[in-house]
Amino acid sequence: MRPRVVRVFFAASALALHAAINCARGQTTLPEITVTPPKEKPKATPTPQQKAKTATPAKTTAPPPVAAAAGPPPETQIVSQTKSFNSARENILPKIGVSSYEMSHQDIEALPQGSNAPLDKVLLQAPGVSQDSAASGNLHVRNEHANLQYRINGIIIPEGVSGFGQLLDTSFVGNVTLVTGALPAQYGLRTSGLVDIQTRSGAFDGGGTVSIYGGNRSTVTPSIEYGGTSGQTEYFLTGRGFFSDLGLENPMPAINAIHDQAQQGKAFGYASRLLDDSTRLTSIAGVSIQKFQIPNNPGQTPQFTAFGISDFDSAALNENQLERNFYSVVALQKKLTDADLQIAYFSRYSTIHFTPDPIGDIVFNGVASNVFRESFLNGIQADAAYRLDPAHTLRSGLYVSGEATQVTTSDLFSIGMPIGSPLTVVDTTSKLGWLLGLYIQDEWKITDKLTLNLGVRFDQMYQFVDANQLSPRASLVYKPNAGTTLHFGYARYFTPPLQVVATPVNVALFTGTPQQPAVPQESPVLPERSHYFDVGVTQTVLRGLEVGVDAYYKIATDLLDDGQFGQAYVLSGFNYARAYNEGIELKVKYQEGNLKAYSNLAWAVQKATDVVSNQFLFDPDELAYIGSHFIYTDHAQTWTGSAGFSYTWDATKLSADMIYGSGLRSGFANTDHLPFYTQVNFGVSHDFQWSDAKPTTLRFDVINAFDTIREIRDGSGIGVFAPQFGPRRAYYLGLAQKF
To answer: Taking the CA atoms of the chain, what radius of gyration do you get in angstroms?
Structure first.
C-alpha cells in the first residue's frame, strides 16, 4: 500500500505543479473549433411567367453562415463536471438525520470583517456555539470541550497538537456547515460537532484578489488569493499574514495589552484534475506558522526567590509560544453508474514550543517550564456508496492513522538557593499510536417521505491505552411536505483522547520540588464512551422564513476534559467517571431579496462527577468534592445566543452581528459563573467599479461597538490558570482589489 500511496502523492503534486507553471506562462490554450458554412443550393432558372411577374428584381440578403455544433466551451465543461463530482462526493458522505447550519462564502462576506475574521469567530454565529479563550480552545459546541472534527472536501484533517491559533484560514472556505446531533456511522472519533468545509474552486472563483486590512492595536493583515483553470485542471490558492499587538486575550480589562504581539502566516492550495469523465484527482496543502507573546498581568506578588532575585515586575515577563502546522491531502474520486467512492491519503506535522521567562516564572510560580510538543500523523481514509436499488443505498468505509508524538518538558527550579545552579528536571515521552475505524450503513427510503438510516461502526485505538468499541447508529427522517423536516437519531460514540494531551507525566521526578503534587496519583487518560439522543424539526413558516428546534441528551462514561494546570499555555487531559449533557436549540433564518437575517438561542447543561485520571492535577479538597458531587464542567454555559443581519443596496452592503451568553464557570469546583455578556459588531462595504477594470472593495468594521468589558475567564475554575478578557472596541479598514 505505501508505494502506491507515495506514487499517488507525487503524481498529484506533479499535476498541481504542471498546472501552476502553465498558468504562470499563460499557456491556457483551448481546442480549436473549425467553422464550416453550409453549402448553398444551386439557383433554379426562372420561367418566362416568373420573369413577367417580376418587373424589378428584389434585393436579397444571404443568410450568415451557421457554425457547426461544437459542444460547450471547455470552461463550461469543467464547471459542469466539477459540480457533478462534488454532488457525487456528497452522496458518499451525506448528513442524514442531523442538525446542520450552513454558511456560504457570500454569507461569510456579509458578516462584519468578512473573510478577514478567524474561522472560529465565524462559527460563533451558529446555534449552540460559545466562545472561550484561545488557551481553552477558542470555542465550544453544545458545551463540549473541543471534540470537533474538521473535514475539507470530505477528508478528515487530523488535529495534531492543540494551540492558540487557527489552522484554517476563512478566505479559502467556499461553504462551511456545522453538523451536530446523532451523526451517521461514517463520522467517528470527534463527535460533538462536524465542521464540514467545501473549498473555493478555480472553476467557480476564477481570477484573484489582493487586499490589506487592519486597524487598532497595530493590526495589519495582508492577503492574496488566486484561482483558475488550465485544461482539465482547476486550482485555488490563498495566503495571509497577520500582525497585531493583541494576539491573545488580554488578562486585564484595559484597552491595550502588555507583551501581546502576534505574527502569523498561513497559506493554502487546492488543485484538482479530471483524469477522465469518471475520475478526479485532487490535492490539498496548507501551512500555518504562528508566534505569540504571552500577555502579562502587572502588579502580581512574587512568591519565590530565583538566583538571588525576589523582586520582579510581572509586567516585564517574557514568555513566548511558537506553533507550526503543515498538512496535505491527496484524494482519488471515482464516479460510476451505481457507485461513488473516494480514497485519500493525508498527513499532518505540528509542533508547539512554549518558552518561559527563566527568572520571572520561578519568582512567581516556583518553576520555569520549557515545553515542546510534536506530532507527525499519516493516514488513509476510504469511503464508498453503492445504490443497491431505488430504495437502498449502502455505504461503507475505513480510517487508519498512525501518529508519532513527543512531549518534552524541561522544568527549571531554584530551591532555597539565593545564588547558584538551578535544579533541572527533564521529562520526555514518545509514542507511536494507531487509530482504526470501520463502518457500514444502509440508507433505506421507506417511502418518498420517510427515510431510515441504520449503521454500525467499529473503532480501535492503540495509544497509551488500548481500547475499542462497536457503535450502532440509527436515524429517522420524515418530510410530510416540502417545508417540514423532522428527524430523530441515536448514536453510540467512542472518542479517543488526543494522544499528545493524554501523554503521561512522571510524577516521581518532581518529588521535593515546588511542583510536587499533593495527590500523587496519575491514572492514564481513557477514551470517552457515550450514548447520544437527538430530535429536531425544521419548518418553513413563510416564504424566506425558516425556523428550527433541536433537543439533545448525552450520557457519558469517562467524559474527556482538559485544562491549563500550570503557567505553560498547554493543555493536560483527564476524565470524569460519569457525566450528562442536555440542551435545546432554537434557530431562525430569514431571506427576502437583498435582506438576510438570523437569530439563534441555546440552553444547555453539562455536569460530571469523579475524576478518574491524572488526579495529580487537582488539589485534595477539590478532588474530594468532585468525587461526591455532580459539578458543572468549566466550559459549560447555560445560555448562548447569536444574531445578525445584512442588507445589500446596489454596491453597498450593511451588516451587524452579535453574540451573547450567561458566562462560563468559575470558582471552587466550578460552582460559580461569570457575568452575562454581549458583543455587537457592525460593518459596511462598498464596491467601486472603475471603467472596465474589476471592482475595488472598501470596507469598514467596528468590533465590540459598545465597548463592553467582557470577562471570558477570571483565573478560577478547574484547569483555568489566568484571567482573560474579550476585545475592547476596535475600528478596522480594508481595501481589496480584484484582478
So the answer is: 29
Q: What dihedral do alpha carbons 298, 299, 304, 309 form, nearest 10°?
A: 80
Residue closest to 734 by CA, chosen among 219, 277, 235: 219
Closest CA to 194 of 294, 108, 94, 262: 94
Tell the residue number behind the cell numbers 503521561, with chain if given. 504
CA atoms of 558 and 565, how far apart (whole Å): 20
| AA identity, residue 322 | L
Q: What is the pLDDT of residue 299?
A: 92
List, for residues 244-294, the tens digit of each pLDDT value: 999 999 999 999 999 999 999 999 999 999 999 999 999 999 999 999 999
606 touches 575 (CB < 8 A)? no
* Backbone torsions φ then ψ of 13, nearest 5 degrees: -65, -40
Report CA 456 to chain centroid distance, whole Å: 26
* Residue 255, SS3 per DSSP: coil
What's the residue count for the chain? Answer: 739
- Whole-angstrom Cα distance, residue 389 to residue 405? 46
* pLDDT, tens digit (0-9, with 9 covering 90-100), for 172-225: 999 999 999 999 999 999 999 999 999 988 877 779 999 999 999 999 999 999
Supply the DSSP string of 74-141, one letter for each residue: HHHHHHHHHHHHHHHHHHHS---S-EEEEEEHHHHHHSTTGGGS-HHHHHTTSTTEEE--GGGTSEEE
Question: CB under 8 Å to 88, separation ≥6 — which residues?
Answer: 333, 335, 340
pLDDT in tens, 70-128: 444 555 778 888 888 999 999 999 999 999 999 999 999 999 999 999 999 999 999 99
CB hemisphere CA count around 31 (13 angstroms): 12
Q: List the grid coordinates of 123.
A: 462559527
Residue 58: predicted pLDDT: 42
Kindly tell me the burial class for residue 450, based on how many C-beta atoms sit within 10 Å of its own C-beta (0-12, 13-18, 19 or more): middle
**Do the Cβ atoms of 655 and 111 come closer than 8 Å?**
yes
Domains and CATH numbers, the chain: 2-17+73-295+305-738 (2.40.170.20)
Quote the DSSP letter at residue 315: G
Fill in the DSSP letter of residue 250: B
Residue among 247, 260, 273 at smallest CA distance from 16: 273
Give the pTM: 0.86
Question: Does 8 have pLDDT greater than 60?
Answer: no
| Residue 163 neighbours by CB under 8 Å, 6+ apart | 290, 321, 323, 350, 352
Q: Classify residue 160 as left (phi > 0), alpha (psi -120 to 50) or beta.
A: left
Spatial distance between the Cα atoms of 476 and 24, rounded to a whole number of angstroms: 51
Q: Which residue, 155, 156, 127, is CA-closest to 140?
A: 127
Residues 172 and 199: their CA atoms lie apart, in Å, by 6
Centre a 10 Å sphere on the Cβ of residue 606 and count the other Cβ atoms it contains.
28
The number of angstroms, rounded, from the C-alpha of 701 to the middle of its chain's C-alpha atoms is 23
CA 84 to chain CA centroid, nearest Å? 25
Closest alpha carbon to 132 in 643, 555, 571:
571
Cell 510581572 belongs to residue: 314
* CA angle in degrees (0–180, nearest 5) for 363-365-368: 80
Q: Residue 91 carries which side chain, given as an amino acid letter?
A: N
Q: Cell numbers of 36, please?
A: 464550416
Show the cell assigned to 613: 485520571
